[in-house]
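User: tokens in, sequence out, please.
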């Protein structure tokens, strides 16, 4: 896997603004809710999930009809491995605001991790009806993963293509396309996708660079392959890819030595 399975959950860090009420008591409660929501969201982004849960639950008590709070509660419960609680809060957020596409996307992602593919696809398609949703590329990618799981590769490739049409540098989709082209032994095309997969947010991922080295090996571009493997070994010393890169590099050098030893002398 290129990235952790939970990477597809959308972490919404944008704070919402609350409108003032004519009731001073109500206004005070909303102000407190805003404060607890902001603190909880910050803690969520810092991966302090238990502290985030405490703040967001307080915010929810003060402002129970705010979908942003329920969405972030859903994410917090998800990362605490309380998936049913997460589902309930995402559903609540979507019920409070039927146009809240972010909550729908999160809900679909959980169903996907539970292998409830029919439910996940239904909600993904519902989310795609929001033409201004700015993470459509991620939704298309998630749908592609479902079709790979259900052994419908042509549908999967269709949605990977749509994902890259929305965001050509989305590295997980490029990586998956690289795997597909590699499987077809289209090593030049695979290399191009793996190169794109090491850009942007995936710059710190060793897998795309390692795969680039493998494709260069298959294309018999050994010097370039060694350069990629050295990159992995130098930058990702403690990863399994460093070990794999060292093995592949030794293979290339051993083959080169054997060829040299077997060369005829004159």
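Assistant: Sequence out:
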């Amino acid at each position: 896997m290129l990235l952790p399975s939970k990477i597809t959950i959308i972490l919404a860090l944008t704070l919402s603004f609350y409108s003032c009420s004519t009731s001073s008591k109500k206004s005070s409660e909303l102000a407190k809710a805003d404060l607890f929501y902001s603190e909880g969201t910050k803690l969520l982004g810092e991966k302090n999930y238990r502290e985030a849960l405490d703040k967001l639950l307080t915010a929810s008590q003060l402002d129970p009809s705010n979908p942003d709070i329920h969405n972030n509660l859903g994410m917090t419960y998800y990362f605490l491995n309380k998936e049913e609680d997460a589902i309930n809060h995402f559903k609540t957020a979507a019920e409070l605001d039927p146009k809240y596409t972010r909550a729908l996307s999160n809900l679909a992602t959980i169903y996907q991790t539970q292998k409830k593919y029919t439910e996940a696809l239904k909600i993904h398609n519902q989310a795609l009806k929001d033409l201004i949703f700015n993470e459509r590329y991620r939704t298309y990618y998630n749908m592609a993963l479902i079709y790979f799981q259900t052994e419908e590769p042509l549908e999967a490739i269709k949605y990977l293509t749509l994902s890259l049409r929305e965001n050509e540098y989305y590295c997980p989709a490029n990586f998956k396309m690289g795997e597909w082209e590699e499987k077809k032994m289209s090593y030049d095309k695979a290399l191009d996708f793996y190169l794109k997969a090491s850009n942007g947010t995936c710059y710190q991922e060793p897998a795309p660079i390692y795969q680039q080295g493998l494709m260069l090996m298959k294309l018999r571009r050994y010097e370039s392959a060694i350069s990629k493997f050295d990159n992995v070994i130098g930058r990702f010393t403690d990863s399994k890819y460093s070990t794999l890169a060292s093995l592949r590099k030794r293979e290339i050098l051993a083959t080169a030595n054997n060829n040299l030893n077997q060369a005829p002398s004159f």
